[in-house]
Amino acid sequence: MSPEQRAANAALMKRLGVVVLAMFGFGFALVPFYEKICEVTGIRNIDGPASRPLASTQVDASRKVRIELDANVRAMAWTFRPAQPVIDVHPGQLGQVTYEVVNTTDRPVTGQAIPSYAPQEAAQYFRKLDCFCFATQTLQPGERREMPVVFVIDPSVPADLPAIALSYTFFEVEGGKLAAAPSASREKP
Amino acid sequence: MSSIPHDRAAAGHGTHDDHAHHPTGLMRWVTTTNHKDIGTMYLWFSFTMFMVGGVMALTIRAELFQPGLQVVHPEFFNQMTTLHGLIMVFGAIMPAAVGFANWMIPLLIGAPDMAFARMNNWSFWLLPPAAILLVTSLFVPGGAASAGWTLYPPLTIQQGMGMDLAIFAVHIMGASSIMGSINIITTILNMRAPGMTLMKMPLFCWTWLITAYLLIAVMPVLAGAVTMLLTDRHFGTSFFNAAGGGDPVLFQHIFWFFGHPEVYIIILPAFGIVSQIIPTFARKPLFGYASMVYATAGIAILSFIVWAHHMFTVGMPVAGVLFFMYATMLIAVPTGVKIFNWLATMWRGAMTFEAPMMFAVGFLFLFTMGGFTGLVLAIAPIDMQLHDTYYVVAHFHYVMVAGSLFAFFGGVYYWLPKWTGTMYDERIAQIHFWTSLVFFNVAFFPQHFLGLAGMPRRIPDYAQQFADWNMVSSIGAFGFGLSQLLVLYAVVKCIRGDGAKAPAKPWEGGDTLEWTVPSPAPYHTFETPPVVR
Question: pLDDT at position B188, please?
Fold first, then answer.
């Protein structure tokens, strides 16, 4: 191979190497890009404060939506339960439910509650104004805390959605690492 | 490309008795920088992995022979489906394609060797450690990765150290592919013989050039995705961990941004091989050479904007579903151009049906069927019914086994005389083709029925109504697996010199540069570049 050939090959290898590095970075760039897409389109905006204004603020007194409350912990020595298992609200009406959580360990523990909805499409009609899931919760040893969720069911909720199950699962946050996590909207106050 | 007038005097005969210049025995293979040696090692590695992955497939089919759990535990079954996928994709098909590239691209473009010979050695020798990691992960506590070859979280975040070994294996194989691709691109762009313009290159070089670009574009993305999995598992990040604010669906997007171009990485080299074989045995130039090049490029570009059709059921806006559905269907256009060009090449050709041609025609027929079921699956409302059923399994085995693998078998028989200097045993090759063809269809055609009837994939047990077709499918799978011993026999026979001596040009219709060098191809070829007019 002639020296010119060698030099030309090395130059091309460098250029292709830059492409490889750029694409490796692109894979990581997809993370904030995805968060942004979800935020803009509202696909995953299920656990932050209601960001979009309600289409209508009229209370629809003609019907009620049943909210079924569920509470779980994942590998944590906390007890976590809703004050009442079921609440009926009119669409558009301000609703409030309370959850009770107790740290049964002898050390301070920080947890983060993750919501989920059944059926899944109900999430878009569930507008939370305040929720303990918007921030991590740190409980001292033996501490008991009552935590509210204030919400409005969007009046545009379809009539064939008579009941929504709202479920929370608490996960332990170790060493405050959650703060560095790529979160969409959960960390917003 | 056909009809290249060669300067035979410059093809590089004689002066090749330099076998004394390199080590012998094992060290010859460890230290070799020769593209033919490395191509050979890639092909043998790939065949070995094909056998390993095949045994795993047969374990799956043995368990599915009857309803109920008979042969293996469900946990082990899941490890088998996962490792079968990883090994076949990264260990068998991709290295086979790179093996063909190593052997044939320098011969097809009149180059003395690959551009970066030492890196070539390195990119091969990364593969065996990766394979060892994957296979030995079966024996670590908790067993091998069992979340499916797509490695979706949250399962991948929860599993034991077998998953870490799989992640490292993917890293290593990815690095190998990237180095191989840089080598191939540089070889094709910088090392062509005088007069060999890009649009005179044999189509195999074109499809590999485009494949190599796809590889350097998406392999780093996969490396990033599995790196994120690894840091989620061990370093407290939460890219995909919902508990920490991450999103498991994000992984699916990143994975399939790699994964869809990956399926074209698997099939484009096969397209290239078929594009070499069909003109040779139809004794006509390839019909629509330029449109073949543009269609290949079109497929590659479209492959970047269709990934979400793998995940219609995870939830996305209707506008997104429609976009990915129509973009996916659009890929049928350039693919159709290729299919019709191959048919037009055969049209009124003076065809003969030696084993390479049989595999190429079998490829054409069965790949088209797999393409059609792909179109069916592209339709979002149907996909939501068929998602994760055996219909999907049938679809991608039609395009990967009857597509890529058949084309590679065709390529093996096509170039064996050049590689070994001995004609392969035509009778064995024909038996290999027909048993493969029949048993492949016995194994995989009924899986369409199973999928349409609702049988889910990756489950070791199933309802009674699926019993009959599963039994048929398992019989076909065992038949197919055993048939593959024939190709091993045929190849070993050639290597031992047991057969007719192959002339430099064993195929009457072959008119590419590799047929201008003697058979077997000397250790060094085209040290003086041929002149292509």
Answer: 96
- Topology given in CATH for the domain delimited by A65-176: Ctag/Cox11 (Pfam 04442) (2.60.370)
| Partner residue facing A8 (CB), from B116, B190, B224 | B190
Other Cβ atoms within 10 Å of B118 Cβ, number? 10
Is B257 within 8 Å of chain A by CB?
yes
Alpha-helical segments (H) within B406-466: 406-420, 426-452
CA-nearest of A159, A143, A137 to A65 is A159
Residues of B in contact with A12 (CB under 8 A): 115, 185-186, 189-190
Name the domain count of chain B: 1
Question: Could you tell me which residues come within 8 angstroms of residue B47 by beta carbon, excluding any fewer than 6 positions away?
Answer: B92, B96, B488
Measured distance CA(B509)–CA(B414) in Å, rounded: 12
Q: What is the pLDDT of residue A189?
A: 31
pLDDT digits (tens, 9 = 90+) for A143-169: 999 999 998 888 888 888 889 999 998
pTM above 0.90, yes or no: no
**Alpha-carbon dihedral angle through residues B43, B48, B49, B54, given to the nearest 10 degrees:** 120
Does the bond joining B106 to the residue before it have cis omega, within 30 degrees of 0? no
Of all residues in chain B, the percent with pLDDT exceeding 70 is 96
Whether residues B178 and A20 touch (CB distance < 8 A) is answered with yes
Nearest residue on chain B to A35, judged by CA atoms? Answer: B250
| B524 assigned to some structural domain | no
Structural domain includes residue B531: no
Pairing mode of beta strands A65-74, A163-172? parallel
Q: How far apart are the first and last CA of chain B?
A: 13
Residue of B nearest to A178 (CA): B244
**Domain range enclosing B101:** 8-516
Nearest one of B149, B179, B143 to B88, comparing CA atoms = B149
Find how far residue B173's CA is from the centre of its chain: 14
Residues of A in contact with B192 (CB under 8 A): none
Compute the nearest-CA separation of A166 from chain B (Å). 17
CATH number of the domain encompassing residue B184:
1.20.210.10
B160 domain-assigned: yes
Selecting from A5, A19, A178 the residue whose C-beta is nearest the C-beta of B244 gives: A178
Q: How far is CA B453 from CA B18, B174, B387, B442, in A?
A: 62, 37, 12, 18
State both tokens at B403: 């597509």
Nearest CA in chain A to B232: A181
Report how far residue B435's alpha carbon sits from residue B485's, in angstroms, rounded to the nearest whole number: 11
How far apart CA B274 and CA B408 sit, in angstroms, is: 9
Active site residue B46: no
ipTM over 0.95? The verdict is no
User: ∠B258-B261-B262 over CA atoms, to 5°?
Assistant: 75
